[in-house]
Amino acid sequence: MILLIQYTLIFSAVLILVALGGMFSERSGIINLGLEGIMVFGAMAGAMVMVLLPESASKFTIVSLTLIAAALAGMISSLLIGVACIYFKADQTLIGTAVNMLATAAATVIVKAFNTNRSKGSDFSAKLDYVRGHDAFMFNIGALQLSWFVVIAAVLLVAAIIFFYKTKFALRLRACGEHPQAADSVGINVYVMRYSGVLLSGFLAGLGGIIYIAAANSTWHFDYGVAGAGFLALAVMIFGQWKPERIAWSAVLFAVFRSLSNVYMGIGFLQALKIPGTVYNMFPYIVSLIVLAFTSQKSRAPKAEGIPYDKGSR
């Protein structure tokens, strides 16, 4: 049961950050289906930092540089979506899909090139120093072993709630996702707000990517992907109705089912059921389909999301 709590908290941290990223993007009016790809870019950048840091690096250095690299990679990759959807007014669904496809392909090429240039032919995925990284990222509270990433996600969640409800900037961001023409008429730069939403999305999704491979991935490898965590975060965002506090509770619900695939062998009554492990791997996605099927009719997405803004139209 302790393991279930540990994995639930870690997966919740991943889903909360990535879903919050999607929320900020869509609240500005840009559909971000590229969260999966942005997570991959963030995971790859953070993992490379972990590989390249010297053994003498302090825990603070490991954690801070890893997070910075992942966040920057997420923001840079999110600009692909921002420029294509805001400047070129491209179809937002297609662009998000393209970023997801690009991320996996780019990660494969970059990591293989990285392996080739590394001395002694060491393999990127197999040789990531996860023991060092794990020690740096974890701490104990009694029998419960927690990740510092959970603390970071909790702090960012509180900050997101305050930011979302208490700041003028967020109010303007939300206005651009609901009535961009009205927002423009009172002097709000819709383009700047939408770029800001996309960059916030990249920042949070990049962090979610490195958390996934450094804490939530039970194989402790970077395998050029994040196993659909970005798409699961989209379901969390929709079920959470694009509101940060509801996203948090939705993330915990989905994380429980996602965690079962990692710990079901240690839970007596689940082990006795003799359900194949692949079924537990399917649980979060089955739950997401069921939940969205029953709640989608009541969902209220931002009115202007997915609609390119034309300053000349009224």
From TrEMBL:
<protein>
    <submittedName>
        <fullName>ABC transporter permease protein</fullName>
    </submittedName>
</protein>
<feature type="transmembrane region" description="Helical">
    <location>
        <begin position="65"/>
        <end position="87"/>
    </location>
</feature>
<feature type="transmembrane region" description="Helical">
    <location>
        <begin position="279"/>
        <end position="295"/>
    </location>
</feature>
<keyword id="KW-0472">Membrane</keyword>
<feature type="transmembrane region" description="Helical">
    <location>
        <begin position="221"/>
        <end position="240"/>
    </location>
</feature>
<dbReference type="Pfam" id="PF02653">
    <property type="entry name" value="BPD_transp_2"/>
</dbReference>
<keyword id="KW-1133">Transmembrane helix</keyword>
<keyword id="KW-0812">Transmembrane</keyword>
<dbReference type="GO" id="GO:0022857">
    <property type="term" value="F:transmembrane transporter activity"/>
</dbReference>
<feature type="transmembrane region" description="Helical">
    <location>
        <begin position="6"/>
        <end position="24"/>
    </location>
</feature>
<dbReference type="InterPro" id="IPR001851">
    <property type="entry name" value="ABC_transp_permease"/>
</dbReference>
<feature type="transmembrane region" description="Helical">
    <location>
        <begin position="94"/>
        <end position="114"/>
    </location>
</feature>
<feature type="transmembrane region" description="Helical">
    <location>
        <begin position="146"/>
        <end position="165"/>
    </location>
</feature>
<keyword id="KW-1003">Cell membrane</keyword>
<feature type="transmembrane region" description="Helical">
    <location>
        <begin position="247"/>
        <end position="267"/>
    </location>
</feature>
<feature type="transmembrane region" description="Helical">
    <location>
        <begin position="195"/>
        <end position="215"/>
    </location>
</feature>
<feature type="transmembrane region" description="Helical">
    <location>
        <begin position="31"/>
        <end position="53"/>
    </location>
</feature>
<dbReference type="GO" id="GO:0005886">
    <property type="term" value="C:plasma membrane"/>
</dbReference>
